[in-house]
Amino acid sequence: MPKKKSITVRRFFTLLLAYALFCVTGGVVASGFLLPAVFGANTAVKALIPSLQTQGINFDVTDLPQKSTIYASDGKTVIAQYYTQNRIVVPLNQVSDYMQKAVVAREDRRFFEHAGIDVQGVMRAFVQTYIKKGDTQGGSSLTQQYVKNVLMSQAEEDNDPIAVYHASEETVARKLREMLVSVQMEKKYTKAEILQGYLNIAQFGNGIYGVETAAQRFFNKSAKDLTIVEAATIAAITKNPAQYDPTENLKESQTQRNIVLDLMHQQGYITQKQCDDAKAIPVENTLHVQNVNAGCQAAGDAAFFCDYATKQILNSKEFGKTEAAREKLLEQGGLKIYTTMDVNANSAAMNTARATIPVDDPTGFEVAMAAIRPGTGEVLGFGINRIYDASQSSGGGTRTALNYAVDQVDGGGWGFQVGSTWKPINLAAWMRANKSINLPLRTYTSYPLSSFPGYGYKGTGTWPVQNSGGGTTSPETPLQGLVKSHNTTQASMAQIIGINSIADTAKLMGYHNSPSDQTDIYSSNSYNPPMVIGSVQASPLTMANVYATIAANGVECTPIALKKVLNKDGKSLQVPSANCHQAISSGIAQTVAYALNQGVVQPGGEAATTQLDNGRKTFAKTGTNESTYMLTGGFVPQVASFVAVGNAESIQSFNNKTINGVYHNTWYGMYIATPAWKSFMNSYLSAAQIPIDNNYGTPDAAYTGTTDAATTSSATSTGN
Predict the structure, then answer these.
(1) Alpha-carbon 603 to chain mean position
(2) Residues 588, 594: Cα–Cα separation, whole Å
(3) How far apart are CA 381 and CA 299, in angstroms?
(4) pLDDT value for 103
(5) What 3-state class would DSSP assign to 431?
(6) Do the bridges between strand 446-448 and strand 416-417 make them parallel or antiparallel, or are there none, so unpaired?
(7) Less Cβ around it within 10 Å: N or C end of the chain?
(8) DSSP secondary structure code for residue 110 in this structure
(9) Are the CB atoms for 302 and 346 separated by under 8 Å?
(10) Cβ–Cβ under 8 Å, residues 12 and 19
(11) pLDDT for the residue numbered 717
């Protein structure tokens, strides 16, 4: 049986060689007459006739999977790269002449002479494998190798494991298919086009595809600048990418490089002296290896922003109808993604978060910060006192993929109860009801829930509410209630204008809840009277955006992370819009800003410690939530930011805790969240050289009078 099988194989290869010769000399069409004889050599091949079809094979180099690159707002700083195949496609004129010749010398010395099949190479492989019984020899031309790579790439891109198998199996059928396609290719494409295709698709090391990526990986230069030594080193890798990669096997890499140099000399591409001089240089002396880690995992301090930007692509219909299509575009589409991330802002936020509470602090409390540019929606950066780890989808440890500064749908958590940082929204709603911030109101420590107007809200019982430290101040104006952060005044305001008015205003200003199943402010978990003292769950980014609306003369924008996205052809793709619009009037926004600066931040105000350096006019509000969350939000005209500190996974008290080496039996926002906010703002404003603008915050006279028809609450007091 073995002897009979050997004769069959020999006969097949003899016929195959005859067929190949006929293809080269007589053309593909005429060669069809020999096709039955070729298949007759091995009846098992007949079943594979469909796999020999060449229709639908795409040899366009620009359609190869290419890596996408994410940039910071400066358009130069690379945040991360995404790819399934790390590849940068370049034209042949951007590949050094030495590199082109090194590959031809290594892979197919008769490349410029044959018509797709190297008959001598096939014959040599046949004799070595079947006559001398030596190691299996390939005998494939460079064109055939290009065809094989294209078939493999398309099968992998289509996620077709059967096609992947047929493109790589060691069978006569595969070889024949490659020969058929190669001959047809040589009639359609020039040698230069085929060489260009091969150089861009071939694997040049572990996870390295294409000559440009290889040049940057091993030598930190472009393929057009490769020297003789560098070109020979790269060209040597393709025979066995795992074994001949110089970062994996330096000794074997040098041996193989020298083989390529000898081949280049034999082909007359370089002189004997050039060959000798090149071989005298150790490979290790030429390397300048660059990291090629993919995805946000390799983005360092920008990882959390990277994850947010990536989520905007994966969640946005602009980039594909399905998430699978959008993920494929990100990993294979060769996109250039220009984000809104300000390098200075993100760095300052990350440094501040870690300095406030170290990553490994025993309390496990999270610090989450977000910064946004008012009037644009551009997210500038995040600060999280955690190490980004894409494999850790849950929180609670020092490493996590959760960005606690954003909504759950964007890769965040449940958010933080925002406490008194909500209260500027109440003041804006009050003025939208055409009421003055200087009207004295009667306040109480208990309110009938049925007395609060609202869309379908029907509360029963009473709501006991008091100020920090107990009791109430009555009468008190809405302005004084904000300056002193008194809860009872907020309740009286809500009773007069209705929680519907406050919820409407919050939504206009950019507010929504963080939990993905209850984002609507009118959800049952948030739409109730305690909402007005911040019993809602929101992300720091959402709250930063609310403060940005106040900072931008009442213009609200949807937060965005993407400024511009170009596809591999350089064409701009549509990106999610910020949808900037006038949400509240300029007069209301300026008056809220006035209340924050002239009252809340001044000596005696609840946020006096937020005052920024160099006399810069400061607008801020602090908040706590029953010793479980510490918060501070604020702005200057050029940037708004928000800081939340607490346990993002479960409610835990700050009381009697030692945090970052400091102990307090009772913690307040002024001890931790406020210094963090102030530190970030001062650091960023200085690093970015943002000029001081102290002209903002002029109150509108329409809202600062002292009389109004409704000067008292209609509540029935149930106790003071």
Answers:
(1) 42
(2) 10
(3) 13
(4) 94
(5) helix
(6) unpaired
(7) N
(8) T
(9) yes
(10) no
(11) 43
- Residue 56: the pLDDT is 52
Query: Which residues are registered as beta bridge partners of 78?
Result: 71
Closest to 595 measured CA to CA, from 698, 441, 473, 508: 698
15: enclosing H helix or E strand: helix 2-26
For Cα atoms 422, 427, 429, give the angle at the middle one, nearest 5 degrees. 95
Residues in the chain, pLDDT under 70: 1-63, 115-139, 153-175, 177, 182, 292-293, 393-395, 605, 707-720
* Separation CA 414–CA 400 (nearest Å): 15
pLDDT one-digit tens code per residue, 440-489: 999 999 999 999 999 988 889 999 999 988 899 999 999 999 999 999 99
User: Which whole-number Å values give the CA distances from 398 to 353, 450, 704, in the listed order?
Assistant: 13, 46, 49
Task: Please report how the helices 172-188 and 161-168 are oriented relative to each other, as an axis angle in degrees rounded to 10.
Answer: 90
Cα–Cα distance, 281 to 555 (Å, whole number):
64
Strand 336-339 and strand 68-71: pairing? parallel
Instruction: Tell if the pTM clears 0.90, that is, is over it.
Output: no
Cβ(254)–Cβ(283) below 8 Å: yes
Segments in 444-533 forming alpha helices (H):
478-483, 487-497, 499-508
Query: CA-to-CA distance for 151 and 155, rounded, in angstroms?
Result: 6
Q: Which residue has the tokens 């096709």?
A: 35
Token digits for 609?
A: 């410690």
Q: Would you give the DSSP letter of residue 600?
A: I
Q: Which of 612, 633, 631 is nearest to 623 (CA)?
A: 631
Q: Cα(650)–Cα(632) distance, rounded to whole angstroms?
A: 20
Q: Which two tokens stand for residue 76?
A: 């130069």
Q: How confident is the model at residue 621, as a pLDDT?
A: 94
366-373 and 336-339 as β-strands: parallel, antiparallel, unpaired?
unpaired
Cβ proximity of 436 and 708 under 8 Å: yes
Distance CA 344, CA 583 (A): 29
Phi, psi at 379, each rounded to 5°: -80, 125
Lookup result for tokens 């946000």: 296
Residue type, 609: T
With beta carbons less than 8 A apart as the criterion, state whether 90 and 66 touch. Answer: no
Q: Which residues of 621-630 are buried (b: 16+ CB within 10 A; e: fewer)?
A: bbbbbebbbb
Say which residue the tokens 């992300």 belong to.
Answer: 539
What are 172's two structure tokens? 């006569």
- Virtual CA dihedral for 291, 295, 299, 303, nearest 10 degrees? -170
Phi first, then psi: what are they for 349, rounded to 5°? -65, -45
Full 3-state SS string of 338-403: EECCCHHHHHHHHHHHHHHCCCCCCCCCEEEEEEEECCCCEEEEEEECCEECCCCCCCCCCEECCC
What secondary structure letter does DSSP report for 129?
I
Q: How far apart are CA 408 and CA 416, in angstroms?
A: 11
User: Exposed e or buried b for every residue in 513-538, given b needs 16+ CB within 10 A?
Assistant: bbbeebbebbeeebbbbbbbbbbbbb
Neighbours of 617 (CB within 10 A): 18
User: For residue range 90-111, what is the model confidence (pLDDT) as tens digits?
Assistant: 889 999 999 999 999 998 888 8
- By CB atoms closer than 10 A (0-12, 13-18, 19+), residue 117 is buried
In this structure, which amino acid lies at residue 241?
P
What radius of gyration do the chain's Cα atoms show?
Answer: 35
